[in-house]
Amino acid sequence: MDLSSAAERLRAKAPFVPELALVLGSGLGALADSDEAKAGTAVPFADLGFPAQTVAGHGGKIVFCELEGRRVALQAGRFHFYEGHPMAVVTAPMRLYADLGVKAVLHTNAAGALNPAHGVGDLMVIADHLNFTGTNPLLGANVPPGPRFPDMSSAYDPSLRAQLHAAAKAVGQTLQEGTYIGVLGPSYETPAEIRAFRQWGADAVGMSTVPEVIVARHEGLRVAGVSCLCNMAAGILPEPLTHEEVLEAGKASAGRFEALVRRFVRDLAL
Ligand code: HPA
Fold first, then answer.
1. How far is the CA of 72 from the centre of ligand 1 (A)?
2. pLDDT digits over 129-152, tens only?
3. For domain 3-267, which architecture applies?
């Protein structure tokens, strides 16, 4: 895909510069079909020159709308490296948001839980990540104006993390906080991998987010992330993992996830 023409097309279609872009993972997709979203402007990925979406349950559009009185962009659907998309496509939305003048991105995803103190259905603020995808989306010639060697020491914005906890408190929820390890997928991990990841300090494991966060930081965007812990990671429980159980747990947490995100957006201070 041609990033500069995608950026130009999105600029032409965007009715405003959103304060925040929200990447809606499994469990939050309904926000893109909410009344607020219906009253907004939807830009299908196809109109920007993105490939057709392949994973069931993922839409494929960016909706510009007002949510809780704030101007946002809701991204329904994302591109995963395991689908065979190049990293340039996986991370293109971050480049587009930066080009539009967006200042912050909230990433949401479904993840497996490694920390025995966390449970299925818990929401976890991402405090930091481990990149175990085997690659880096910044591989190749640097895309200016971002630096060749971008700093990742506070990739997940401390103020936004605090605001997520404050939002949770305001709606009567408890949020876990921890380290997310991004893997390539699409196979789930082996129990041996999960034991190793646990020793490295990972609390949650998933197949998205890390490449997008690296590019978002390269673009100077402020980043926050929340994982919905949809299953205990491989080998923690005696049963095998299935995509269906992940989707089910995502659905069961959707109401709480949405309440948290709405409050976060309402009270957002950038
Ligand atoms: N592993 C990797 N990705 C995931 C998982 C998991 O256990 N759950 C949801 N996404």
1. 28
2. 999 999 999 999 999 999 999 999
3. 3-Layer(aba) Sandwich (3.40)
